UniProtKB/TrEMBL annotation:
Residues making up the signal peptide according to the UniProt record: 1-24
Residue ranges constituting the Spore coat protein U/FanG domain according to the UniProt record: 31-179
InterPro entries: Spore_coat_component, Spore_coat_U/FanG
PANTHER family in the record: PROTEIN U-RELATED (PTHR37089)
Name of the protein described by the UniProt record: Spore coat protein U-like protein
Species: Limibacillus halophilus
Keywords tagged on the record: Capsid protein, Signal, Virion
Length: 182
């Protein structure tokens, strides 16, 4: 019996040596979590190439006189003529536009010209009928909305009222700050 045992042990060792490092095919399974955290907020589709958000232009074009009303709409930097925003579904937000760099008094927006002291008054509106003046955040003129989770587009409507004295020829400009708060 002892001889049979030795033969079996030697045979098993020989078999394992001949097989070498052979491994059996196998399979392991486990779980991997895939996560995303959606923060509360809004994203505005704007041009940021100059280091600041550039939300488009309201261009009244070239005019010979200010005797008639002159209307214009915003032209966006990334979409046709809109300020485009995407906010969380159900998130209330507001868009406000300040009175610009050349304001006069409490509520008059003005573009300044090449000649010192010459200005052209204008106004910005939320609607094409020019009845809802676009005001600053925290005022009755701010635009209020609620996010849908999809892009929402807004057009800024500009108007130069008639009856102003036509100033010297040249370019007139103002810069307004647009603020979005949620």
């Amino acid at each position: 019996m002892n001889a049979n045992y030795k033969f079996a042990v030697v045979g098993a060792v020989g078999f394992l040596a001949a097989v070498g490092n052979a491994e059996a095919a196998g399979e392991l399974r486990g779980n991997m979590d895939v996560l995303l955290d959606i923060g509360t907020g809004c994203a505005v589709n704007v041009d940021t190439s100059g280091g600041e958000n550039q939300w488009g232009t309201v261009d009244f074009g070239s005019q010979a006189s200010l005797s008639n009303i002159i209307d214009a709409e915003s032209s966006g930097t990334t979409s046709a003529n809109q300020l485009e925003m995407t906010c969380n579904t159900g998130l209330p937000y507001a868009i406000g536009i300040d009175l610009g760099q050349n304001q006069s008094g409490a509520n008059t927006r003005r573009m300044s010209g090449v000649v010192s002291g010459e200005f052209v008054a204008y106004e910005l509106y939320q609607d094409a009928a020019h009845t809802q003046v676009w005001g600053q955040i925290g005022t009755a003129g701010e635009l209020q909305s609620t996010g849908t989770g999809a892009a929402q587009e807004y057009v800024v409507h500009g108007r130069i009222p008639s009856g102003q004295t036509t100033p010297s020829a040249g370019s007139y400009k103002d810069t307004v700050r647009v603020t979005v708060r949620w």
